[in-house]
Specification:
The complex is a heterodimer of chains A (414) and B (345).
Chain A: H1 4-33, H2 35-42, H3 44-47, E1 51-57, E2 86-92, H4 99-119, E3 125-131, H5 136-148, E4 152-156, H6 161-174, E5 177-180, E6 196-198, H7 203-217, E7 223-227, H8 231-244, E8 255-256, H9 265-274, E9 278-282, H10 285-297, E10 303-306, H11 313-319, E11 327-330, H12 337-347, H13 355-370, H14 376-384, E12 387-389, E13 394-396, E14 408-413
Parallel strand pairs in A: 2-3, 2-4, 4-5, 5-6, 7-8, 7-9, 9-10, 10-11
Antiparallel strand pairs in A: 1-14, 11-14, 12-13
Chain B: H1 2-17, H2 20-25, H3 27-55, H4 62-79, H5 93-128, H6 133-158, E1 179-183, E2 186-189, H7 190-212, H8 214-224, H9 226-231, H10 236-261, H11 272-285, H12 290-311, H13 316-330
Antiparallel strand pairs in B: 1-2
Helix pairs in contact in B: 3-7, 3-10, 3-11, 3-12, 4-5, 4-6, 4-10, 4-11, 5-6, 5-10, 7-8, 7-10, 8-10, 11-12, 11-13, 12-13
The chains are: A alpha/beta (414), B mainly alpha (345).
């Protein structure tokens, strides 16, 4: 009987080969009739969806004209900077489900550092990257490495709010500048950290601004607020719900989902039962994209509104036509044309959310190094007193590490 | 006194948190969605149940077999000339069914092959050396991580970034869910019909196979008493391989059905939670019992949705596992008992 094992394996193999052949021949058939390939080219129209900047708003939801980026600080400087080889670090999700955001930041910073190094032969700056996977637990393992590396005088990051909350004390203790291009949880600046600065508006600005925009400009009367279980999602949903007020934010369809979920049928049914004007999703694109498409497939016609966590090309890619007309807010500014072109040329992908912020913030650190900053204390001091334009906005911080003037952008998928 | 004071409002707030309205209002819609997911759980659960019945092994890597099936059907569709895009392809009903059928076979081939391969590479050497059952369990968990990280890091390099990696695959949508009819106020879509019907057909076919064929009899014999079965001329190794193959094939089919419903769920980590749910479904129905897997899957799917409507969507996993614990408290062997070996079915 033992001999029958290879027989069965053989049968399975034949079956498998047969399947492959069937697959191949069908492909040829369809090639002749051009059905699938023909279909794909004809429907390219909505495959071209992308996230377009719509309007910049203040915390009342009113329009504010975009900042003039012509005075923006240039990382190249005048090319005469002299310094010893210096290291800065970047920490964020470089792998894992939300890696796109971390990579946007890393690339934006690299663009600035490379421009600086190319122009200033006598001042070479290295950027070390640290992958936290966006996970607070991973970040607590990585943070001591960054703090312990004495060559690092400034940190761009951490990227997400949860990890920043978890590892903030480590950097505070090490006296290392922690300059975030993306962590928007409002409580982060309430910890008394003297080394932490946020290069964009926080959710306490984003929430009320977007809520006001939804009520005043988009005239939504009933909104379902759906949040994930991240610090970011919970904080943002709280702000949005408060901003919308109890008459607009419907508590009957206020649902909570979990990071990593891909199927939202109960939430979709509950939302559908309430027929709202809009669904606001507070979370990241990894869940936001399948949620948006399941809402559409479930027959929910409400507008989809979300914030910076979903404001990523990957959202449009995965949600497909369900992403059309979605409103995505972001404290991040749109990429100026030249920046977008340089970025595309260097990394062969379009720049994304926080790329511009990362570029601006890296530039600020580079300015510090050019002006003679050599240690961690000097870097914190330099940023504390910084006052200048960047590509995205004007950078000047208050005593807590928040921007003195913080505005929000609304984007739409078109 | 103060204890009483604090307990009072806490209890009333918990009671008022029960959203009975939401459950009754959406009852049939939730039931239909629950049955849809339940059928997918059921198909995956069969893989756990069969392997457990024959080997007394909980094959934790089965969730990754399912995940590989998702990639298998996706790759098959790419081979057929479909490219990922935002829109749904409109190929006409007949062609769509043909393409879906081929994709399903592709997914089944990958899952079935992977399951048999896993058995040969990971479990058979251990069995030959008579390793204790704990070692099998750890190997299964290890294999699960290896398969996940393979798709996470290695597959993108092998396929020129077309498959695998950190993000979910950009979906290839063949079917637009459209409402076919309304059942007691709940919309029933074509996708839901396809999933439930296909899953039930496959489950029945498997059941018939195990009950009626010579191979099936062999599986039941080994499950019942491996030593006697061997004495009666049943090859244990062959039965084991067959068991893994059937489990893998069903996981592959489930993978296609799942991606019909959740097109952007094709990601290296996408099998994990679903696998744990399917395993729970198997235990709920009575692990080792084929009909139990089906019943457990459907029950878990439906209860999960009712629970979410009642307690809030964030309690999804809690509902599933509390249900499991409650059933096991009163029926430690699951609803239908562990009967693959014993029962005539």
């Amino acid at each position: 009987m033992r001999r029958s094992t290879p027989q069965l394996a053989g049968t399975a193999l034949v079956l498998a080969v047969g399947l492959v052949l069937t697959g191949c021949s069908s492909k040829d058939d369809s090639g002749d009739t051009t059905s699938p390939t023909g279909g794909s080219s004809s429907a390219a129209a909505s495959g071209d969806l992308s996230i377009q900047p719509l309007v910049q708003i203040d915390n009342k939801g009113a329009e504010v004209p975009a900042a003039d980026s012509s005075n923006a600080a240039d990382p190249a400087g005048d090319g005469s900077a002299k310094c010893d080889p210096t290291t800065i670090a970047m920490a964020g999700a470089l792998t894992g489900a939300n890696a796109a955001l971390g990579i946007n930041i890393l690339n934006g910073a690299k663009l600035a550092v490379d421009a600086h190094n190319a122009a200033n032969k006598d001042c070479q700056v290295t950027i070390k990257q640290f992958d936290t996977e966006g996970d607070p637990q991973k970040a607590t393992q990585v943070a001591p490495q960054i703090a312990g590396d004495k060559s690092i005088i400034g940190l761009l990051g951490p990227a997400f709010s949860g990890e920043t909350k978890a590892v903030g004390p480590v950097f505070q203790q090490a006296g290392l500048l922690s300059l975030t291009a993306s962590a928007t949880n409002p409580d982060l600046t309430k910890n008394g950290w003297t080394n932490f600065f946020r290069g964009l508006a926080n959710d306490a600005v984003q929430g009320p601004s977007v809520a006001a925009y939804m009520v005043n400009t988009l005239n939504f009367k009933k909104v379902c607020v759906v949040q994930d279980d991240s610090d970011y999602g919970v904080g943002l949903a709280e702000q949005i719900t408060a901003g919308l007020g109890t008459s607009v934010a419907d508590s009957k369809c206020a649902a909570k989902v979990k990071t990593g979920d891909k199927d939202f049928s109960a939430t979709v049914q509950i939302v559908k039962g309430e027929s709202p004007d809009a669904v606001f999703y507070a979370g990241y694109y990894a869940e936001g994209a399948p949620f948006a498409s399941q809402l559409k497939e479930g027959g929910v016609t409400a507008a989809f509104v979300s914030a910076d966590g979903t404001n990523d090309p990957e959202f449009v890619k995965q949600a497909g036509s369900a992403a059309k007309d979605a409103y995505l807010s972001c404290p991040c500014g749109p990429a100026p044309e030249k920046f977008a072109a340089d970025y595309q040329a260097k990394f062969s992908v379009a720049s994304g959310v926080y790329s511009v912020e990362a570029y601006d913030l890296a530039t600020i650190m580079l300015k510090g190094i050019d002006s003679g900053v050599k240690d961690r204390a000097g870097m914190v001091d330099f940023v504390k007193n910084y006052d200048g334009d960047g590509l995205a906005r004007h950078y000047k911080w208050d005593a807590n590490g928040e921007l003195a003037s913080a505005l929000i952008w609304i984007y739409q998928v078109k | 006194m103060s204890a009483v004071m604090t307990v009072g409002p806490a209890v009333s707030s918990v009671v008022s948190a029960f959203n009975v309205d939401s459950l009754t209002h959406n009852f049939w819609a939730l039931t239909i969605d629950g049955l849809t997911y339940g059928s997918i759980y059921a198909l995956v659960a069969v893989g756990y149940t069969l392997v457990y019945g024959v080997l007394r092994l909980i094959n934790f890597a089965h969730s990754e077999i399912f995940m590989l099936g998702m990639f298998g059907q996706y790759a098959t569709l790419m081979l057929l000339g479909f490219t990922p895009r935002g829109d749904v392809y409109t190929e006409g009903t007949l062609l769509t069914i043909v393409y879906l059928g081929i994709a399903m076979l592709g997914g089944m081939a990958v899952s079935g092959g992977a399951a048999v391969g896993l058995e040969r590479v990971a479990y058979r050497p251990l069995r030959k050396r008579g390793a204790p059952s704990l070692v099998f369990l750890i190997t299964a968990i290890g294999a699960s991580f290896i398969l996940q990280e393979f798709v996470h890091f290695v597959l993108p390099k092998l396929t020129n970034q077309k498959l695998g990696g950190v993000n979910a695959q950009q979906p290839i949508r063949l079917v637009e869910p459209t409402v076919q009819f309304t059942f007691l106020g709940a919309d029933v879509t074509n996708v839901e019909i396809v999933i439930v019907v296909a899953a039930i057909l496959l489950a029945v076919a498997t059941e018939r196979f195990i009950t009626l064929t010579k191979f099936g009899r062999g599986i039941r014999a080994v499950a019942q008493d491996p030593v006697t079965a061997t004495l009666m001329g049943v090859s244990r190794e062959r039965v084991i391989m067959l068991t893994f193959l059937i489990g893998g094939l069903l996981a592959g089919a489930a993978a296609l059905l799942y991606t019909l419903r959740v097109p952007s769920g094709i990601i290296y980590s996408g099998g994990f939670i679903l696998g744990i749910k399917a395993f729970s479904a198997a235990v709920l129905g009575g692990i080792g019992n084929l009909r139990g897997a089906l019943l457990g899957g459907l029950l878990l799917g439906v209860m999960e949705l009712y629970g979410q409507a009642l307690f809030g969507t964030e309690w999804r996993d809690v509902v599933a596992f509390v249900l499991l614990i409650l059933v096991l408290m009163f029926r430690p062997t699951g609803i239908l008992g562990e009967s693959l070996g014993r029962a005539r079915a």
